[in-house]
Specification:
Radius of gyration: 39 Å
Structural class: alpha+beta
CATH superfamily of the largest domain: Outer membrane efflux proteins (OEP)
Number of helices: 9
Shape: elongated
Oligomer: single chain
CATH topology of the largest domain: Outer membrane efflux proteins (OEP)
Number of strands: 6
CATH architecture of the largest domain: Up-down Bundle
Length: about 450
């Protein structure tokens, strides 16, 4: 592929679509952005796992007044959350002071405690930490499909731009040939008119033909330049510097593409293609995440009932189990519930409605994908047939033109007939080029709709 002089990739001047798309996939900023989607999902999982990280804490509260230490309350704690709404904790309390509340008194070495906190109502089967981790795991699974769809769309746009550039380039060549032929004929007719071998009116007709073709060529040149500018949008260096096609860069030859046979396409029902489509799989993951939200919302309809239990002992020589007794403990229970549950019921109903909306979206997207795939298949097969017709038509009109030129050289034809044959031949070739490019674009669309440009 030849790009700008900034980076010479090869002496080859033909830009091949496969190499072009591979370069887009490797170096385009949107491709690199798509590659970040799974990494982003991994950070969600890491963040959600952080809800289960052990936490160490230290609290110190002291009061001094009138040169007296009223109290000093110290509590060093380690808390380890677990999956099933259960937390393990251990710590050491050291409290002292002249006016210390008796219930806060601890032995000289402090008071070690170790036990559990458990949710027996709200949070027993699922809580916010577990819900977030499950949703993060679901997002991580769907992220690879989102990456695939993003790259698939990028390659479709890049490939479509390539074949548009291909069409505009070869159309420009045809119109350049037509312009050159009319220029040569105009000079010849003018010379023959000067010598009296042709009527002067023929020079007017030849001049009109030249001007018409010059205008068409100029218009086509602009279209070609615009298609090149669009193609440049997809050309980048690895370091993020944009590139441009070199002036000498050319697409594949017309005959190279025209001689390629039609590509195999799935016949019969497309339900299997639709059912396994990544877009529907992403919606399924969305439903799975909503189901987690629904379970969490349902859990909030339960009253809060938590219990904590801690064994107590004075550590001797830093051993918390020295002189341990199961009779030394403290425990507590907390119960709480709203009287109307309006907030909780609304959250549950909203999640249920989101699920229904998403299920309807899935049905609509499934029908839409099926219709688009069927339409793309019909369009492609029709374009293949039309391409063959126009290629043969171009060959036939070219033969008629050659025969007419032979007649003209012997004086048995007119300039009007030559112009008519030339216009028919060039128009047929333009139409053939259009369908050659259109066939390739429709094949890209068929693959794009299946999301198979990138697997």
């Amino acid at each position: 592929m030849v790009l700008s002089p900034i980076l010479v990739l090869s002496q080859e001047q033909i830009v091949r679509p496969e190499a072009f798309l591979m370069k887009v996939l490797e170096q385009h900023p949107l491709a690199k952005q798509a590659n970040l989607i799974p990494e982003f999902a991994e950070t969600y999982v890491l963040k959600a796992r952080g809800g289960f990280d052990p936490k160490i804490s230290y609290d110190l509260n002291q009061k001094y007044y009138g040169d007296k230490l009223y109290y000093s309350l110290s509590d060093a704690q380690l808390k380890v959350p677990t999956w099933y709404g259960l937390s393990l904790k251990t710590g050491l309390e050291q409290n002292r002071g002249q006016y210390l509340d008796p219930q806060g008194a601890t032995p000289q070495n402090g008071l070690w405690y170790g036990g559990i906190e458990a949710n027996l109502g709200n949070g027993l089967f699922i809580d916010e930490r577990r819900a977030e981790l499950r949703k993060a795991a679901i997002f991580q699974q769907s992220s690879s499909l989102e990456k695939r769809l993003a790259l698939n769309e990028l390659l479709f746009e890049a490939g479509y731009a390539y074949w548009d550039w291909f069409e505009q380039y070869h159309s420009l060549k045809i119109l350049k040939e037509a312009l050159d032929v009319s220029a040569v004929r105009l000079r010849a007719i003018q010379r023959m008119a000067e010598l009296g071998d042709r009527p002067v009116i023929d020079t007017v007709e030849a001049s009109i033909q030249f001007q018409t073709r010059a205008a068409a060529y100029s218009e086509q040149l602009t279209a070609f330049q615009n298609s090149g500018a669009t193609l440049n949008r997809f050309l980048w260096q690895a370091n993020g510097v944009p590139q441009e096609l070199a002036d000498s860069a050319r697409p594949l030859a017309k005959d190279t593409v025209a001689l390629q046979g039609p590509k195999l396409i799935t016949a019969g029902p497309v339900d299997t293609l639709v059912q396994s489509h990544p877009y529907l799989a992403i919606i399924d993951f969305k439903l799975e995440a909503l189901d987690v939200e629904k379970k969490f919302a349902k859990e909030q309809l339960k009253p809060i009932l938590s219990i904590n239990y801690n064994l107590l002992n004075e550590p001797i020589q830093y051993n918390p189990f020295a002189q341990f007794s199961a009779n030394d403990y403290k425990w507590g229970i907390t119960a709480q519930m709203p009287l109307l549950y309006r907030k909780e019921r609304a959250a549950y109903q909203q999640t249920q409605l989101k699920i229904e909306q998403t299920e309807y979206e899935r049905l609509d997207q499934r029908a839409s994908l099926k219709a688009k795939l069927l339409s793309a298949r019909y369009d492609y097969l029709n374009a293949v047939a039309q391409k063959e017709i126009y290629i043969e038509n171009a060959k036939s009109t070219r033969k008629l033109l050659e025969a007419e030129l032979n007649l003209f050289s012997t004086g048995e034809s007119t300039l009007f007939m030559i112009n008519a044959r030339e216009m028919a031949a060039f128009q047929a070739e333009l139409k053939a080029i259009n369908y050659i490019a259109k066939t390739e674009q429709l094949w890209l669309k068929w693959q794009f709709l299946q999301a198979t440009l990138v697997r």
